Each structure stands twice: as structure tokens, then as C-alpha cells.
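ingest -> fold -> write
write: protein_1
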Amino acid sequence: MGRPISFCLLLHSAFLFVFLNAIVADARTHSSHRPHQEPSYLKFVVNATDFPTEDYYDYIIVGGGTAGCPLAATLSSRFRVLLLERGGVAYGNRNLMTREGFLATLMDVNSFDSPTQAFTSEEGVANVRGRILGGSSAINAGFYSRADQDFYTKTSVDWDLRMVNESYEWVERAIVFRPELRTWQSAVRDGLLEAGVDPYNGFDLEHAYANPLNIKVVTHASVERILLASTMPSPASRQSAAGVVFRDRVGRYHHAVLREHGEVILSAGAIGSPQLLLLSGIGPRPYLSSWGIPVAHHLPYVGQYLYDNPRNGISIVPPFPLEHSLIQVVGITESGAYIEAASNVIPFASPAMSVFIRTPSAPLYLTVATLMEKTIGPASAGSLRLASTDVRVNPIVRFNYFSNPVDVHRCVNGTRKIGDILKTRSMEDFKFQGWFGRKDFRFVGPALPVDQSNYELMADFCRRTVSTIWHYHGGCILGKVVDGDFRVIGTDALRVVDGSTLGISPGTNPQATLMMLGRYVGLRIMKDRKEYKMID
């Protein structure tokens, strides 16, 4: 594994189109497709309305997202695999395929079928979930970085680090490429160096695709519950997953059933996986009973230990146009925060009751450049509970941002580092010329406190301006809901393989590690089944 680094010029991945290379037999030919040609993975993708009323598989994976896609690709090399995704496909949706469409994708939401599903935590922080084949990796900023060494020592898994590296490399052969740094990202890189965040030069990657005959990807499939059966007719018998029930877009029910020795694997994310366990009767007995849900297995920590890394920062309007750029450069500080940057072109709207400004006849656009910090960890934990027994309705979530003072301290350190960067020579060009030769930034939204040495002022800024960086995780934590092999404790033939199992966010961005996790668990399952067959 690679050594911890203080500054990364890391890798940039390109949304779903490239990500799905991990589940396509001829992935490497995609870049040569002409625009009118459909990508070849669509050959094994079907709409749920075309799925039979009942069918049988070795592995049923719920959630075609960041972990679910590579997991399905891996298992399909030897087994018959069904991948169920509640959303559609990204092909043909330009906003999902370009950096320029990033903000539009996050804002264009509806209740049941947009690629982005919006939700708001009880604290009032707006957030989103991916509802598209590719999951949140299809709607995010596409940043790729491996987890640091601490991640493997702090999780309750007996990691085979050689297999971990092989799994990362499998992902990287398909999707990773070097970003082209332009005006804003280059300036931030230089500003980080000036602000004392030491450099690490280049890449650190020391830190076989799907079988189309064995895999079926079903879109617009809303899984409502896991089918459970007793392993033996006695009071002490264990429950075992037998399949899933899902509905298509017109409301018809379908049953996907396991073959002998098969498994259901939840990869529906930190919101979807605990929600589906609860709706299937796996969770705290008193809570399930209060909803009238028959209790299949009492598992008290389902939906608990839910985390979201706070994001805080500033945005400025530069005196000249900038290109669209998402996360390409990250400063890894030694004080509990990551520093990241983005620039976006957004529409300008005149005030509703303006006296002097008329509504422009053609759209006007402004460039906004952002510096932000992501709090490592975090230490503050929240929870999830049902809002409805309809799986399409978002659960109620509370992340308890900054309830642990450790997170406040880390945020103060991170926002102070942003202040240091703003004082560097690299940022001078982004100031406006004012009166008497003075140059100043033009802030959009709150600026940092003037007295950044005042801890209480900085802590108040953190609490007052908190938002999400969309790296929420937990809810099916290792050691409490799943064991070290990601099996649901107390229930056979059922696993959870996604970010809901993690108590910490791995590295600067969890995307790479979740892709690795899907590949890794798939390899472990095949290895274990091979050894079991040899013993049998």
C-alpha cells in the first residue's frame, strides 16, 4: 500500500460512462464509439417491465452503484448474476456525461425517477442520492483516490492487502486518467504549496470484465423487501435470504429467487441498504413492531452510526471567466481536513423587485470559484429511521454535524488553511481592483471571519455554513450489523457491500475504495466457494 501523502495531484474519473467499463466485456472499445452507437453494455440491460414474473440466480445484487457494479462484474465470471437498479441508464443524458452538467444534474430532481434523488437531513442540510445505473458515481464530481493505510487498520476486516491492491488495479485499468489542470485548479495547487501544504509529485498508485452471458442488469426495478425463509422448522432456527421482491414502473411485482448456495447482496448505499433491511424485518424489534413490520431478526444497530463529512468553504466571483472544473486537486493537511476546489458557470438572475435591472433577453452567466474543506472522519454520528413503508420515500436522517468537538476542531483547522491559501500570491489574480489600488475578493455567500485566530468565531462559521460533500456512510456498520466478511449478522445468505458498512470515509473521496470493495468482496466470495467445493 502507498504511504500517506500530504498533497495529492490525484486522478480524475469520468462519471458513469467510463465507470460502467467495469461491467462491460469490451469496455476498452467505448472511447471509439461514434455518438449514434449505443454502448455495448446495453445488450445485457433490460427494463424491469420486460423481466419475467419469476427467475433464478446465484447472486442477486440490489443496487447498481459504485460497489454493486464491480461486484456484479466480478461474480458474473463464474455465476449467474442479477443486478437490480431502481433508476435508469445514463446513456443519452448529456448532463450525466459532462462536467458542465454536474450542477444541473444535482438540481434537476423529482420524487421518483430523476437521476438524482434529493433529501434534507433533520438539521436542514440539503443532500442527494444517486438514482441511476452507476449510483452516486454517475452524478458526483468523479474524483478518484485510494484510501490511506489507516483505513485498513481501523475497519473490522481481515484485509488481504495483496487482493486489495489487485482490486484497485482492476478498477484503475478501466477508468482512471490524469486530469488536465487549467486556471483555477492550477492556482489552487500553487496556493496549497505556498500555504505550507507540502507536495507529493505525480501519482501514487502504490498506496477481466463482466461475462455478458452470465449477467442481467435490470433498471427501474424498485426492490421492496428481501424474501426470508427459516433454515429449519424450530424456534431456534435462523433466517436465510431466499430472494427479493421488486416492482417495475407500472407497478407489477417480480420475484428474483436464489439458486442453491446463492446470496442476496445489498449495495444500495448508506441510505438504501439500512432502509431495505428495516423494511424486510431486520432491525430493532421494538422499532419494527411500532411500524407493524413483522420482525424476522432483531438487529439493534441497523440505521445507527450514520455519518456525513461536513463541508465548509467560500466561493468567489473572479474578475475573468473560468472553465468548468470539478475536484481535481486535493490538499491533504495534517490537521484533520482535506482542501478541495471547483469552478462552475452558473446563470445570473436579476432581483425579483429590481428597479434598475431589467430581465436580460438572453441568459447571463457568472463563473464562481470555490475553495472548500472536508472534515476527516467524521467523529459525529447520527441515525436513520423510516418515513414510510414505501421504499421509494426517503428515510428520515440526522447526521448530528459537529456534535463531537473533534469535528469542530478539524473544521476550524481546515477553514483557517483556506484563509492561508487566500493570502498567497497565487490567489492575487482572482481579486478585483478596488479604490486606492486595494484589491479584494468578491465573495458569493459568507466570507471567512476577519479574525481567523479567534477559535469561537471560526467554530461558529463552521456550524453556520455546514453543507455536505456527499460522502455520507454508515447505517450497516461493520461489527454491529455485518461481520468481517460483510455478512449480515444472524441471517444467512445475506450480505451488505457498500459504504453503509463503513464507520469512516476512506481517503479524500470514497469512490475508489467502494469500487475496490465491490471487486474485492466478489473475489473473496469466489475464493471461498472454490475452497468450500474442494472440501465438500
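write: protein_2
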Amino acid sequence: MAARVQHSLQSQRNSITAFFFSSSSSSFSNSLTKTQISFRSKWFSPSSSSSKRSGAALYCTCSSNSDSTDSNSTPMLAKEDPFILTTPLYYVNAPPHMGSAYSTIAADAIARFQRLTGKKVIFITGTDEHGEKIATAAAAGGSTPNDHCDAISQSYRALWKDLDISYDKFIRTTDPKHEAIVEEFYSKVLENGDIYRADYEGLYCVNCEEYKDEKELLENNCCPMHLKPCVSRKEDNYFFALSKYQKRLEDILEHNPDFVQPMYRLNEVQNWMKSGLRDFSISRASVDWGIRVPNDPKQTIYVWFDALLGYISALSEDQEQPSLQRAISSGWPASLHLIGKDILRFHAVYWPAMLMSAGLSLPKTVFGHGFLTKDGMKMGKSLGNTLEPNELVHKFGADAVRYFFLREVEFGNDGDYSEERFINIVNAHLANTIGNLLNRTLGLLKKNCQSTLVADSSVAAQGNAFKDNVEKLVEKAKTQYESLLLSSACESVLEIGNAGNLYIDEHAPWSLFKKGGTSFDSAAKDLVIILEAMRIIAVALSPVAPNLCLRIYQQLGYTPEQFNATTWNDTQWGGLKSGQIMAPPNPIFARIEIPSESEGGTLAEKKVSKKKEKLPRTQTQTQTTVGA
């Protein structure tokens, strides 16, 4: 049955209608019933280019009538739900590519930020291992589907390790616990009357593993995504009654616009739905490599109906008997599904309809990011311009790769990679703005103060406008992280470094030290102020470049354990104390040298750019964003 409840929130929140949908185990009912609701407000505006948060979304959890209390009683405080974040489950027909890495890097930055704020995070990633393409790829490689899946899945785990991905759950759709939950979910949807058997004939894209409408195909019935002709197929399949959920999905998108983000992705989904939802096939008679349909073992479950359940099966603990209810009780619904825009339809339309059919809560937000290009061109093996993430991380390091893509691609839009811009951005931001500032400040401290701080940072910065500026930038970065404006968050943190370089150049402590007396004391305090700013940068940028920030913290005399224990509260001014001993200066990021013609087009050996301490730092601020 469905329940529609209106609830008015006071203060800065407008009156918003929130919808909760659940289904009984019998046939669908259009009747409306009152349900006890507890509301939680979530401010979320990732589509805005401004740091100001501009909207509120309401999410609700419903209790049964037996759990309801008198309307005059005081409700009990509920335990805070975990922040469940998912990447797509990556298809193992081929090793990971840069698009997969980009999704996962972004998800990891979001997960790390949420942990800094004190949230219990469950970061889910994994591999989608069933379907026709998998069997074909395995046969082409002369291996069995099982062996093929093992090898490719492991290649994802290896890359995630190299990229410092801090996932909590890695689910494989060939895992027995996943298969058990898929079978249980299928049975619930079947019992609800939303699965039926029928013949279907249409144009099928093998690469998408999806039947296509002729109106969405290119010339010669080519798939617009893979540019290959679709093949005509006729099968006796089981279908999911997607059309039955048209109105309910329209209501969700209308009354909860944050369900699909950015806003232009929501518009894409709504425009697609205007032509009317059609029931879709959820089984394949011609595909052997998959989970068997519980009521018809001659057929296998459609790969998407299977894979989407990985977001739930990942919540099952390995040691327990897998069940849908146990998995759900571990924290579902997901707070954020992070996906590429090419699979938006499956997550924003098919998946919520499936969940409603099974009587389960919907994810809170589906965020569809853009594609990556290389040198302004779409990447492809036929063009010889693919961007291999393994090569990139081994060539430049995880911090450089993570920072470039999160800083230079406006999250949600398409973005472009060129090696020249990559080197210029990484050198300017990480080696110069941040690295050189720390290195020359520690050098001055060692030379003049025996690497020891002369005052608490809170005392050294009393009445100093620089401190106020840093605090404003930290708050700005937090707001941007919360709104998934990852590029803007990087920029705000980098502004702290730019301000620090300007401060030290204007105050010229190297000259003040030579004057002695009160000038010496002022110079020593200036170094404390800059190093406190570096400490704050290390915390605020850690979601993006964790190893770089660890090295900064260690240079400031802290242990890895102390760095790992930091929270966002540690971005508050006042962490460094008088008498603290800093480590000797040691460059935290090696400048990448641009190859010259004499080097035959290969990268020169990485080396640190050394500058005389009296020379002001050359500031380079370059932002390139490519619109979707």
C-alpha cells in the first residue's frame, strides 16, 4: 500500500510534502493510509555552483502501528543512521578504466569527509560478474567465467589499494550471500504480483545488455552509447511491471528533487519518463552465466535486476545466514548512490520501482557524474587514446591523480585530461603552493628557532586577520564538501595555501630574524601562524590527498596515529602549542618535470623545485572545467 503524509517544518525549512511508499506482499493497492513518520532534514545542493546551500530534502522512516505512540508523548531519540555510500558495481568484462577510477576516487573523498565529521560510514564498492558479456569475454580469453571474474575482480581491488581507496565493503555478485538475497528479493516482487511471463521481440544491445527503443537508436539501429548495431531478438522472458510505478515515481521526483542530482540529471530522468514507462524483461533464456530464476531454472535473472541488489547484499555479514531483512537492518537505505550518467536510468527509475515493489525504503540520493575525455576527444581503444589508471598512478602517484581529477573536473559535469595540464596543475598546487610553503617555513624555523615553536598558535595569531581568513575558508570548504562541490572544496583549501604564501612574502620573516629583538619575536610568531595554517590544510585536504596530508602532519611533528585520529574539529585554529618540535624540512611532494625534446618525449626524473627563501613564490591558479 502507499502512504502520503504531509508534515510542516518550522524555522528555515519550507513546507514540503514527503512521500513514503511501501508495498504489501499481495497485489498493489492505491489506498492511502496514515503512517507514523519520523523526519530528518538533509540540506543538499550539489548542482549549485555557489557555496550557499539552497534546498531541503526530507527523508522518512515509517514504523508499524504497533510501534506508534500517542501523539502527545515525547518521541524517543533514534540512533543515527550510518552514511551508506556506494559506487557502481563495476562490470568485469574488462579491467578497470579511468572512468571507474574517477567514480571511486570521488566516492572515497566523500567517505573520508563524512568520517571526519563523525559519521559512521559504510562505503560499498564491488564488481558485477554475471551476464552475456562476461561469458563472452571469458571465452575470448580462453578461461572459464569463474576464473575470468576472479582475475578482473582482483584487478579492481589492486587498483583501489594503489589509489588509497578506503572502502568498507567489497561485494561480488557471484558471492553466495548475494545470490541468496537476489533470490529472496525476486520472490518478494513475484509475490507482490509485479512479475509476469511474456514473449518479447525487439532490438537488443549486447554491450548495454538491454533492449532498446527504436527512437533512441542511431542510423542502422546503432546504440548511441556503444555505436554498434543492435541485434533483433525474440525471447520468452519474465517481466517486471515497471509501468505500474509511473505515477509514484513521478511523485517522488516532483516532491523530492534531491532524489536525483545534479538538477540537470533530474531533468533528464523526468524527460525520459514523459514518454511513458514500459515493463522490462528481468530474465534471459539465452544467457547461462547468471543467477537462476527461482521459479524457472531454465532462465537466468537479468544482470541489472541482479547487480542492483549488491548495494543491499553488501550489508550482510559474512558469518551470518544471508537474508534480506538482516541486510536491510544493517543501515539501509543508502545515503548516496554515486554513478556515471550512462547508468542513470537504471538507478533513478528501475531501482526505486523494484524497491517499492519489495516494500523497501528508497536510497536518499542518486548522483550522476559526467564522462572523462582525453585531450578533448572521447577515449577508445580504436582511437589509441585510452587513459589507463594503473599507468597513471604508477607514473605520478595516488595523491596527484586523486587531486587532479577532483580539483579539475567540476563534479557532475564531463571533464578532460591532458598530461600537460595534469603536470602544470599538480606542480602549481601541490608542489608549489602547499609543498614549497611548508618546506621554506620549516627551513626558517630550523635555522632560527631550532625547529621549536615559540608560542601557541592561538596566542601568535591574536588580532591577526590571516587567522580570520583561514577560518572562513575552512567553513566554506566544509559547506562545499557537504554539497558534493569537490572541486570548489579543493579550491577553498588551496586558497589557504595562497594566503599563507602571500602572508610570508609580505612579512618577510627572513629579514626580521636578522634585525633581532622584537622583530625576531614577530618573525618567530609568523612561522607559528603559517605552520598552523599548514596543519589545518592537512586536515581539510585529507579527503582528497590523504597520503600527502599525512606527510604534512608528520613534518609538523605528529605521528601517523595522531593523523588518523583527526576529525573535522581539528580544522579549528589553535592546534599547535608552544614548545612543539617540528621535523626537519623534507619536501612532501616532488615536482614533476615537464619533458623536453632532448628527452625524447619521456618524463624526466622527478625532482624537487628549489627556490631561494627570499624570493616570493610564483603563484599559479588555473581552473579548467568542461561543461557537460
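write: annotation protein_2
DSSP finds 20 helices and 20 strands in the chain.
The longest strand covers residues 195-205.
pipeline exit 0
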